[in-house]
Amino acid sequence: MICFQQKILNLIKCFRRQWPLFSNSERTTVCGADCMLMALQLSMTEVNEQHHGDFTVSLSDVLETWKYLLQDKLGLSYENMKEPENYADLKKAYHAFLARNNMLDLIDIYQKCHGLGLVSEDESIAPVQLLEFISGIMNVQENNGSVLSTPTPVNRQGQENVKVTILAKKCVCSYISLLVNSKDDLALAHIINVPDRGLGREAFTNLKHASQKRKMSIFLMATSFIRTVELGGRGCASPLFDPLRVHVKGLSNFVNFIDKLQEIVGEILNPRIAGGQILSTVKMHLIKGRSNGDPFCQAVEEVVQDLDLKIKNIIDSQHEVLTASTTGVSPAR
Questions:
Q1: What is the residue-wise DSSP string for 232-290?
Q2: What is the pTM of this model?
Q3: How far apart are CA 200 and CA 317, in angstroms?
Q4: 271-287 and 295-317 helices cross at what angle (nearest 10)?
Q5: Cα dihedral sign for 23, 28, 34, 39?
Q6: Residue 25: its pLDDT value, please?
Q7: Which helix (H) or strand (E) covers residue 153, if one does?
Q8: Which residues contact residue 215 at a Cβ distance below 8 angstroms, ignoring those fewer than 6 apart?
Q9: Which residues, given as ranges, of the chain have pLDDT below 50?
Q10: What UniProt keywords apply to this chain's record, in alphabetical order (predicted)?
Q11: 263 burial class (0-12, 13-18, 19+ CB within 10 angstroms)?
C-alpha cells in the first residue's frame, strides 16, 4: 500500500508530466496548503475592501472561511457550518487570485487527476483524506502515536531549528518559484523583504494597490516602476507611483537581484549548471552579512544542498525527453 504522502507526491508528479491537460502555461505552479490559506486571506481583504472599505480581515474569520472553503471545494458536507459573509464573492476572488498568479491549488490538481482517470486505484485519495492532509489533521493523528515528553530546553531548541529550516526552505523556494512564474505574488510576498530591504507591510500594500490598478502582477508592477525611475528619472514617475517613491532603494535591490537570476537562466544553457548557480547565488544573497554560526545560514546551506540534488535528479529523470526535444530547454523546465 502506498503511503499517503507518496500519493500526494504522485499527484504533483502527474501534474508535472501532464501539465498541458491542466493549464495552457508551463509556468503554472502548485499552491500548497500554506499558500492556499494565504491566497484566501488576500482574497478576503479584497472583498472586505469592496464591501466595507476596510483592507483588513481578522484571523478568526480567515480560519472559519478556510474550513468552509475546503469542505465546499471537496464536495463534503458543511450543513452544520455557517456560510461566511459574502462567501460567493470570496470564492470567486480566491479562484481569480490563483488564475492571476498562474497557480492551481492541491484540490484543483486532485480533482483534475481523478476526473481524467490519471490516478490508479492503488493511488486513489478520498476527499476526506485530502481535507485532513491540507488541514494538518493527519499529521497530528500520526504524531499521537509517539511518546510525549515534558518540554525541555533541548526540545525547544529542536523546535526552533525546525522553524528556521522551514523559513530557509520557504525563502529559497520562493526565489525559484518567482523566477519560474513571475506572476506568483505569494512567492514575492515571502521574499520581498528577505533579506531586509526596508520593504515591510506598507511597501507590499502600496505595490498591491498599484498592481490592481494597472491589472498586472505585483512583480511586474515593481519592475515597471523601477524601470521608469532608472530610465526616466524620478521626475518622470506618474502620480500613480507616488506611494512607491519612498521604496525605490529596496525595490531596486529586489528587482535587480531577480534580473541577476534571470541572466543566469539565459546565459547558462546546461540546466544542471544553471540550477546549481541559481541556488548558490540565492544562498549568498540570503546569508550576506550574517555570521557563519547563524542558525539561518546553516539552514540555508542545508536547504540549498538538498534542492540542488533534487533539481539534478529531476533533470536526469527527464533527460531522454529533453534531449529528444527540438525546441531546447525552457527556463520553466
A1: H-GGGS-GGGGGGGGGHHHHHHHHHHHHHHHHHHHH---HHHHHHHHHHHHHHHHHTT-
A2: 0.77
A3: 40
A4: 170
A5: negative
A6: 82
A7: helix 153-180
A8: none
A9: 1, 138-152, 154, 237, 239-241, 326, 331-333
A10: Cytoplasm, DNA damage, DNA repair, DNA-binding, Nucleus
A11: exposed
* pLDDT score of 328: 52
pLDDT in tens, 312-330: 887 887 665 555 554 555 5
Which element (helix H / strand E) includes 79? none
CB atoms within 10 A of CB 38: 17
CATH numbers and ranges of domains, the chain:
4-137 (no CATH), 161-316 (1.10.486.10)
pLDDT of residue 296: 92
CA gap 161, 155 in Å, rounded? 10
* Strands 103-105, 29-31: pairing kind: parallel
pLDDT (0 to 100) of residue 321:
54
Largest interatomic CA distance in the chain: 65
Neighbours of 283 (CB within 10 A): 21
Query: Following DSSP, what letter does each residue of 197-245 receive, concatenated?
Result: -S--HHHHHHHHHHHHHHTS-HHHHHHHHHHHHHHH-GGGS-GGGGGGG
SS3 293: coil
pLDDT confidence of residue 331: 47
Task: Name residue 116's amino acid.
Answer: L
> In 10 A of CB 223, how many CB atoms?
19
* Whether the Cβ atoms of residue 165 and residue 81 lie closer than 8 Å to each other: no
Helix (H) or strand (E) holding 40: helix 33-52
Cα 226 to Cα 251: distance, rounded to the nearest angstrom: 7
Cell of 168: 530557509
Residue of 174, 145, 143 whose CA lies nearest to 159: 143
